[in-house]
Each structure stands twice: as structure tokens, then as C-alpha cells.
Amino acid sequence: FLVEDTRHIIKEAAQKSCFVCYKMGASITCCETGCDRTFHLPCAPDGECVTQYFGAYRSFCWEHRPQQAVQARPSQDNTCSICLDTVENEISYKTMGCPACQDARFHRQCIQRLALHAGIGFRCPCCLNQEPFMREMLTMGIRLSKRPPSWENVQEVGPLGQRHGRCDAGTCLCPGGREHAEEEGPWQLRLCNSCAAEGTHRHCSSLGNSTYSWECNTC
């Protein structure tokens, strides 16, 4: 029966076009009653669609996806709490917020990368709330990992909220060692722009003085 069901699903998908790229073979249909929009999973981000990676694994198009009910930001500091780049003024598909502290804002891509790196330690990067925050992120389509945090594989985890403070380059060239860091110059420590769980001295990764963004090999 499973083989026949699979064949039936493939046959149906082959006849449906993706509303994002307009190509055939769209196997995902919006779960909203009466909505017949279909799309490919890789096209979901471009179409601002949401797939919930828990329970029934429901998917929604841009019109019927769940919306966050985050209130106005108290600090009005429109920067991503993870990468520190600018975010939109309003909550949207690309700009998300913490339901607990109502203050943290982050890009969807940034919080998705953090979720995969943090694993079972995933929580709000600002207020460190975990349970309500995690439920909200799942509802909004963020995929979580059940693995231990990725940084536990390379070093002992410090207190929550402690900034990463060592060079993780394959070969550290700093005379003072991996944990030596200066305010500027070749031995200034730069953290990964996506996960902030790994770092490098500028000189160890050949980063110029004008380079402000760096990503580790994992990201």
C-alpha cells in the first residue's frame, strides 16, 4: 500500500504547478481549507511559505501562514540580535521576534541557523527564554535540532550568554594563543556572523581591516 500511495502522490504532484516558480511537480499544498496553492519545498522561502516541522508537518502559503502577535518593540533598536544588521521595522516573514521578552528581533535566516547550531539548547538570544520561545519558533516554521549544541564538540560550554572568546581557525598564528584578543589589528577576534559559536583572529583567516563579516566553515 505504501508503494501505491507514493506513486499516487508523485502522479498528483506531477500535474500541479508551483505558484512560486511556476514549474510542475509541486508536492506541497497549503493546509488552509479552500486554498489550492501548491509549491516545492525549496521554493518555500522565496514564496514566504511556512512548513511546520512537528506534529502533522503542516504547510501554509504566504497568505495563510501563521503570524506572530509580537507587540511594538520597547527599545526601537531595529537591529538583528544575532548578526547585528538592520531588520525591518515591522514583524514579517523575514523579520521575527521573541514572544517572551517582546524585544529581540532577528532575521529568519539568522534564527534558523542558530536553531540548528544550538540544538537542545535553543533559546532566545536576548532574554534566554526557552519553552514559549521554542514553541513559537516551531509554529513559525523554524526547524529545530535534537542534537547537543554544536559548540560543545569543540570546547566546554561556559555560562549562558557568555560571548565566545577563542580563535577556532585550523592553525592559530597568534603568539598569545587562541584565547588572546585585541581591540583592533591582526589579533582582533571576529565571531561567526551567523552562529557566533566560533571565532577567528583576523590574521588567522586573512581578514582585512575593512572586513566586518565572517562565517565559520559550519555555516
TrEMBL record:
SUPFAM superfamilies: FYVE/PHD zinc finger. InterPro entries: EPHD (IPR034732), PHD-type_Zinc_Finger (IPR051188), PHD_PHF7/G2E3-like (IPR059102), Znf_FYVE_PHD (IPR011011), Znf_RING (IPR001841), Znf_RING/FYVE/PHD (IPR013083). It comes from the Eukaryota. Gene3D superfamilies: Zinc/RING finger domain, C3HC4 (zinc finger) (3.30.40.10). Signal peptide: none annotated. GO terms for cellular component: nucleus. Keywords: Ligase, Metal-binding, Zinc, Zinc-finger. Residues 80-127 form the RING-type domain. Residues 1-65 form the PHD-type domain. One of its GO terms (molecular function) is zinc ion binding. It holds the Pfam family zf-HC5HC2H. This is G2E3 ligase. It comes from Struthidea cinerea. The lineage of its organism: Eukaryota, Metazoa, Chordata, Craniata, Vertebrata. The gene is G2e3_0.
